[in-house]
Design goal:
Elements: E1 5-10, E2 13-18, E3 27-30, E4 34-36, E5 39-49, E6 67-69, E7 73-80, E8 88-90, E9 94-101, E10 109-111, E11 117-121, E12 124-135, E13 139-144, E14 147-157, E15 168-173, E16 176-180, E17 184-187, E18 193-201, E19 207-211, E20 220-224, E21 231-237
Parallel strand pairs: 3-5, 4-6, 5-7, 6-8, 7-9, 8-10, 9-11, 9-12, 10-12, 11-13, 12-14, 13-15, 14-16, 14-17, 15-18, 16-18, 17-19, 18-21
Antiparallel strand pairs: 1-2, 19-20
C-alpha cells in the first residue's frame, strides 16, 4: 500500500505525517470494551463493537469504548471501527502509538489522569463531528505526528465537568489537521495551556479560549488564536 505523507519542517528535519487510513491486517468485532493493562499491540487489525453502540454525539460513557486503558497502559497499531462510541478511555496516563479511528462517533479518546503526561504518537482520526480528544483529567497530553480530517476540534479541555478545574496542558507538534476547526479548546480560568509547533491547520485555526465551569452550563468563549500566554504558536502553517 502506498502511504501519502505531508512533510513538515521540525528542528531542521523532515517529519512524515501519514494522511491515509492504513489497510487493516484483519478485523475483529466484540460486544464489550477491551481492557488493557500494560501493553497491547493490535498488529494493525481493525477492532470494532458488534452490535454497534455509536449514537452520534450522545455521550454514552466508558462502557461504550473500544479499549479501556489502565494507568500507564500503552495501545499500539490498531484501527478502531465506526461501531464503537467512545474510542479509547484512559483511566490514568496512557500512550497511544499509531492508533487510527476510521469514524470517531462521539470521542476518539478520553483522558482521565489526575496528573502526569499522556502521549499520542502518530495515527489519525476521521469524521469527528465535535472534538477528537476529550481531556477531562489534569496534567499534560502531548500529540505528535498526528493526522485529523473532518473534525470540530482536535482536543478540548472539558468545559463544564462536575468538579472541573486545571490546569490541563496540551502540546501539539508536527501534526496535520484539515477540513475542520481549531486544534485546541482550553479554559484559561483554570490555567490551561496549548502549545502548538510545526503543525499545519488548513485555515490557520489554533486555539479557542473559554471560561470553564463545573455547573454543566455551556462555557463562555472569550477569544480565539494565540495570546502569548495560554495559547502559544510557532511554525503553524495553512499549506497542508
Amino acid at each position: 500500500m502506498k502511504l501519502f505523507t505531508i512533510l513538515l519542517s521540525a528542528a531542521g528535519a523532515a517529519v512524515a505525517v501519514t494522511t491515509t487510513l492504513p489497510k487493516s491486517a484483519g478485523s475483529t468485532a466484540v460486544p464489550t470494551a477491551i481492557p488493557v493493562s500494560g501493553s497491547f499491540d493490535g498488529g494493525m487489525k481493525k477492532y470494532d463493537r458488534n452490535p454497534s453502540v455509536c449514537q452520534g454525539q450522545t455521550e454514552t460513557g466508558e462502557k461504550d469504548a473500544m479499549f479501556i486503558l489502565e494507568n500507564g497502559a500503552t495501545l499500539s497499531n490498531v484501527i478502531i471501527g465506526k461501531g464503537q462510541a467512545e474510542g479509547v478511555h484512559c483511566k490514568g496516563t496512557c500512550t497511544l502509538n499509531n492508533v487510527w479511528w476510521e469514524d470517531v462517533c462521539e470521542d476518539a479518546a478520553t483522558f482521565k489522569q489526575s496528573s502526569g503526561t499522556s502521549y499520542i504518537n502518530g495515527g489519525g482520526a476521521f469524521k469527528a463531528e465535535d472534538k477528537i480528544f476529550q481531556f477531562n483529567g489534569r496534567g499534560t497530553v502531548r500529540i505528535k505526528d498526528f493526522y485529523a480530517n473532518d473534525y470540530g476540534k482536535v482536543i478540548r479541555s472539558c468545559g463544564n465537568c462536575s468538579g472541573n478545574g486545571g490546569p490541563r496542558n496540551v502540546v501539539i507538534e508536527n501534526s496535520v489537521a484539515v477540513n475542520g476547526g481549531v486544534l485546541c479548546g482550553i479554559n484559561t480560568n483554570y490555567g490551561d495551556t496549548c502549545k502548538i509547533s510545526n503543525t499545519c491547520q488548513d485555515d490557520g485555526k489554533s486555539c479557542d479560549r473559554y471560561t470553564g465551569n463545573s455547573s454543566g452550563k455551556e462555557p463562555t468563549k472569550i477569544g480565539s488564536g494565540p495570546d502569548g500566554t495560554y495559547c502559544t504558536v510557532s511554525g503553524l502553517t495553512k499549506n497542508c
